[in-house]
C-alpha cells in the first residue's frame, strides 16, 4: 500500500524493556514513508516511545473518530454499527502497532476503545504481547487470557495469532469462521537488518496527490501541523520576489481559460491556502476580535492579489473604516501599483465622493457588460501580450518598454457628476477585475458617537452593500473585516459572503491561539479549513535564518512536536510588503502595464 492510502503508527512504551531496547527493535520503521504525519499530527514521525508520546498518538486517533461517521458517540456504538460504518468507509487507512503494555490504565482503556470502534474510521490495531508458550500444561486458551491481561485491546481484536514451535516459525491464526483451532501457517520471518534495508529503500518515496487513491477515489495529500507564524512571500513561492518571477506569474494567469484570481491566505494543512473570489463569484467576510490579526490578513490579501495579476487587469480599492479613531492599517498597502483609491473614513466630503464614485463604477460596468458575464467579456478584451527585450534599460532611455494606451490602463473611480469631457469612449475604458478591501466594516455600519465620519458613513455602507449584492457579476468583489460580527450580521455583505474567515476562535477557551490562526469556511460545500495567516509587514529575514541546520537523528524523540527554527528578522531592514511593492512596480513597467495614478 502506498503512503497515501496507509499510515502506520507505533506505540512502544512497555516498561518491562528499556527505551534503548525498544528503540533498537523499531528504529527501522522510522525510515518508512508510511509513518510521516498525514492528518496534521504534531510530531516528526508517528512514533511513541514514552507515555507522553503515546498519549498524543492515541488522542490524535480519538479526535479522528470523534469527527468520523459515528461522531463523538463512537465509543458506545454497537458492533453492528461499527461494522456497517467500516463497510462504508472510503479513505486512507491507519494501522496502529501496540507493542506490549501501554503503561497506564487510561492508555489501556483508550487502546481497547480504539480496537473496538476504530474500523469505523479506517483505524485498525495490531497488538503484540509476550506470554508463556502454549503447552499441554498451559493450553491456547490460557495463552489468550494471559495476552488479554497484558493488553486489554486483545479482547476487542477480531483475530488472534499465536507464534509457536521450537524456533517460533509456526503461526496459528484464529479468526471468525476459522474454527476453534484456527489456521496454522509457516511464518516467513525476516531479520531486523533486512527490514531496515527494505525501509531505507522506500524512504525517498514521494507520490503526487493524483496517484493516491482508495477504492477508485482520490485521497487528499498529507496534512502538516500549522506553524505558529507564516511568512506570506514563502507561501506565495516568492521568497526572492523579483520582477522576472512576478511577470512569469502574470503570464501564467493570462493563459488560464477559467476565471481565477487566487488570494493566498497563509499556510494551510496541505500547503498554501487560497481563496478564489473570481472562480467562486463571491465575496469574503473576515471576522476577528482585536489582536487576532485581521488587519494584517487584509494586508496579506492585498499583496497576494497584486502578485496574482497585472495592474491593468486587477485593481484594488482600500477603505479604512475606523478612520483616525482606529488608525489607518491599510495605508501601508498604497505602495502597491494595483491600488487606485484609498479612503480613510474620517473625511465626510471624501467619503461622499467615494460612495458616488463606487456607485457610478457599478453602473458603468453594468452598461458595458449589458448582461454578458464578466469572465466572457474579460476574455475578449484582454490586452495583447507584449514582448519585452531581456536587456536592462533605465526609465526613459531608448529601448525602454512603453505602455500601449490603446490596450492598457488603470481604473479611476470618479463620481458620475462633474466634468467628463476628457473621458475615453465607453468601449475603450479598461475594466479590470476590482477588489474592494474594507477594514473595520463594523465601524462604518455603527459609527461611534462623535466620529468625524459618522455623517457620511451611511452613504459608504450603501455603496458597499451594492457591491455585495451586484458586484460579483460585474467583476467587483468585496473583502470586508469586522471586529463585531453581531453589528454586521444583517448586512448584505454578511449574507452574500460565500467565503467566511474566523480568526482567533479556539474550540477550548483555555487554549491560546497565536495571532493570525483561523478557519476558512466555504458556504458552497460547508467545508472548514484551518490556516495560519501569512504575515507581510514583517522585516525581511536574516540570511542566517535561511541556512540549513544539521541536527542529530534521535528515534526516541521523533514522536515529540517538532522544534521549529524561529524566524529572525532584520531589525532595520525593509518589510516584505515594501520589497514586494518595489518588485511589482518594476514588473509593471517592464510588462507595459502602467501602475495606478497617484492617489488624490
Q: What is the oligomeric state here?
A: single chain
What is the approximate shape? elongated
Name the CATH superfamily assignment of the largest domain. Answer: P-loop containing nucleotide triphosphate hydrolases
What is the CATH-assigned architecture of the largest domain? 3-Layer(aba) Sandwich
Any idea what the radius of gyration is? 30 Å
Report the β-strand fraction as a percent range.
Answer: 15-25%
Description:
The protein is an alpha/beta fold. The protein folds into 2 domains: 6-158 and 190-218, no CATH class; 230-538 and 576-590, Rossmann fold, CATH 3.40.50. The protein is built from 18 helices and 20 strands. It has helices at 19-26, 51-66, 79-88, 105-117, 140-150, 192-202, 232-236, 243-255, 277-280, 294-308, 323-326, 348-369, 374-380, 441-445, 454-470, 485-488, 492-495, 576-590; strands at 6-11, 47-48, 93-99, 123-128, 160-164, 170-174, 183-186, 213-214, 217-218, 230-231, 262-268, 271-276, 283-287, 314-320, 339-344, 433-439, 476-482, 497-503, 517-522, 528-535. Strands 10, 11, 12, 13, 14, 15, 16, 17, 18, 19 and 20 form an 11-stranded mixed beta sheet that branches. Strands 2-1-3-4 form a 4-stranded parallel beta sheet, covered by helices on one side. The protein has a 3-stranded antiparallel beta sheet with strand order 5-6-7, with no helix packed on it. Helix 1 links the parallel strand 1 (6-11) and strand 2 (47-48). Helix 2 (51-66) packs parallel to helix 4 (105-117). The longest helix is centred in the middle third of the chain and has 22 residues, at 348-369. The radius of gyration is 30 Å and the shape is elongated. Mean pLDDT is 81; it is low at 385-428.
Amino acid at each position: 500500500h502506498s503512503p497515501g492510502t496507509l499510515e502506520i503508527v507505533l506505540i512502544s512504551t512497555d516498561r518491562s524493556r528499556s527505551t534503548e531496547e525498544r528503540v533498537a527493535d523499531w528504529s527501522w520503521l522510522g525510515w518508512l514513508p508510511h509513518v510521516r504525519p498525514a492528518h496534521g499530527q504534531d510530531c516528526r514521525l508517528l512514533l511513541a516511545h514514552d507515555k507522553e508520546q503515546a498519549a498524543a498518538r492515541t488522542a490524535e486517533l480519538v479526535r479522528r473518530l470523534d469527527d468520523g461517521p459515528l461522531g463523538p458517540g463512537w465509543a458506545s456504538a454497537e458492533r453492528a454499527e461499527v461494522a456497517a460504518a467500516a463497510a462504508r468507509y472510503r479513505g486512507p487507512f491507519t494501522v496502529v502497532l501496540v507493542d506490549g503494555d501501554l503503561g497506564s490504565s487510561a492508555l489501556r482503556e483508550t487502546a481497547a476503545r480504539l480496537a473496538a470502534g476504530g474500523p469505523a474510521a479506517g483505524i485498525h490495531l495490531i497488538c503484540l504481547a509476550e506470554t508463556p508458550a502454549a503447552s499441554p500444561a498451559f493450553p491456547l486458551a490460557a495463552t489468550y487470557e494471559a495476552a488479554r491481561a497484558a493488553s486489554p485491546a486483545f479482547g476487542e481484536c477480531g483475530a488472534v495469532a499465536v507464534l509457536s514451535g521450537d524456533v517460533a516459525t509456526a503461526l496459528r491464526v484464529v479468526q471468525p469462521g476459522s474454527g476453534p483451532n484456527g489456521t496454522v501457517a509457516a511464518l516467513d520471518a525476516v531479520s531486523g537488518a533486512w527490514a531496515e534495508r527494505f525501509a531505507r529503500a522506500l524512504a525517498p518515496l514521494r507520490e503526487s496527490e493524483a496517484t493516491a487513491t482508495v477504492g477508485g477515489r482520490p485521497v487528499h495529500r498529507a496534512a502538516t501541523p500549522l506553524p505558529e507564524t507564516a511568512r506570506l512571500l514563502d507561501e506565495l513561492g516568492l521568497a526572492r520576489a523579483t520582477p522576472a518571477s512576478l511577470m512569469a506569474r502574470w503570464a501564467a494567469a493570462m493563459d488560464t481559460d477559467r476565471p481565477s484570481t487566487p488570494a493566498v491566505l497563509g499556510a494551510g494543512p496541505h500547503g498554501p491556502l487560497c481563496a478564489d473570489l473570481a472562480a467562486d463569484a463571491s465575496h469574503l467576510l473576515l471576522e476577528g476580535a482585536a489582536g487576532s490579526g485581521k488587519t494584517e490578513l487584509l494586508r496579506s490579501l492585498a499583496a497576494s492579489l497584486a502578485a496574482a495579476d497585472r495592474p491593468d487587469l486587477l485593481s484594488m480599492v482600500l477603505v479604512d473604516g475606523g478612520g483616525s479613531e482606529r488608525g489607518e492599517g491599510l495605508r501601508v498597502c498604497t505602495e502597491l501599483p494595483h491600488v487606485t483609491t484609498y479612503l480613510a473614513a474620517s473625511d465626510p466630503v471624501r467619503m461622499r465622493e467615494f460612495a458616488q464614485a463606487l456607485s457610478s463604477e457599478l453602473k458603468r460596468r453594468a452598461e458595458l457588460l449589458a448582461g454578458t458575464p464578466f469572465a466572457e467579456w474579460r476574455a475578449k478584451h484582454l490586452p495583447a501580450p507584449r514582448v519585452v527585450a531581456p536587456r536592462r534599460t533605465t526609465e526613459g532611455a531608448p529601448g525602454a518598454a512603453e505602455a500601449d494606451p490603446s490596450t492598457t490602463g488603470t481604473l479611476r473611480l470618479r463620481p458620475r457628476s462633474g466634468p467628463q469631457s476628457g473621458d475615453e469612449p465607453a468601449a475603450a475604458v479598461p475594466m479590470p477585475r476590482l477588489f474592494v478591501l474594507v477594514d473595520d466594516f463594523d465601524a462604518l455600519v455603527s459609527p461611534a458617537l462623535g466620529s468625524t465620519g459618522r455623517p457620511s458613513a451611511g452613504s459608504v455602507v450603501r455603496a458597499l452593500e451594492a457591491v455585495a449584492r451586484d458586484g460579483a457579476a460585474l467583476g467587483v468583489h468585496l473583502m470586508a473585516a469586522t471586529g463585531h460580527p453581531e453589528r454586521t450580521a444583517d448586512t448584505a455583505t454578511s449574507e452574500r459572503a460565500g467565503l467566511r474567515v474566523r480568526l482567533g476562535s479556539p474550540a477550548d477557551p483555555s487554549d491560546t491561539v497565536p495571532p493570525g490562526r483561523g478557519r476558512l469556511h466555504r458556504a458552497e460545500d460547508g467545508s472548514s479549513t484551518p490556516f495560519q495567516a501569512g504575515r507581510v509587514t514583517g522585516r525581511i529575514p536574516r540570511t542566517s535564518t535561511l541556512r540549513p541546520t544539521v541536527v542529530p537523528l534521535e528515534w526516541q524523540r521523533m514522536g515529540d512536536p517538532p522544534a521549529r527554527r524561529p524566524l529572525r528578522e532584520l531589525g532595520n531592514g525593509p518589510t516584505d510588503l515594501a520589497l514586494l511593492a518595489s518588485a511589482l512596480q518594476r514588473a509593471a513597467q517592464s510588462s507595459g502595464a502602467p501602475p495606478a495614478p497617484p492617489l488624490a
